[in-house]
Design goal:
Blueprint: E1 2-4, E2 7-9, H1 11-25, H2 27-38, H3 48-60, E3 65-69, E4 73-76, E5 96-97, E6 110-111, H4 116-133
Antiparallel strand pairs: 1-2, 3-4, 5-6
Helix pairs in contact: 1-4, 2-4
Length: 141
């Protein structure tokens, strides 16, 4: 248990709070990633700009990553070196053809009516929070 203020908090609760604090302090950056993807929707297997945005975040965090997976996929792996469960954070890159959508691409009709832009924003927000908070160093797997 950790003492925080006048109350006792479990280690797990403290780690969760650290992650939440980082996410909150970088809210505009996380939303900005989602909005930039929303503004440049790409259809399946053509998500080159979107993949590049994910790669930029991974690079900024010092994460090694593989790219070009299934044409445009990107994957980073953290290993703590300690035994334990494995957790995967995954987000989809592609948009759908929805020509009537108010934010559809004029040429392709692609739009993020599917919410994949929000998935990617959540993914990179969680990755940044785990890394910046240092919580990743406390986990196993």
């Amino acid at each position: 248990m950790l003492i925080q203020g006048n109350s006792l908090v479990s280690d797990r609760d403290a780690l969760k709070q650290q992650v939440c604090d980082v996410i909150e302090s970088r809210r505009e950056r996380v939303v900005g990633v989602g909005e930039s993807i929303m503004d440049a929707p790409e259809l399946g297997f053509k998500e080159y700009q979107t993949a590049e945005k994910v790669q930029e975040v991974f690079s900024d965090l010092g994460l090694e990553f593989d790219s070009g997976l299934g044409l445009t996929g990107v994957k980073a792996v953290w290993r703590s070196g300690r035994p334990g469960p494995t957790v995967a954070l995954m987000g989809e890159l592609d948009a759908l053809q929805v020509p009537g959508h108010p934010r559809a691409d004029a040429e392709t009709g692609a739009a993020h009516a599917c919410g994949h832009n929000a998935q990617i924003a959540s993914l990179v927000g969680a990755a940044r929070a785990l890394k910046v908070s240092g919580v990743i160093d406390q986990l196993s797997g």
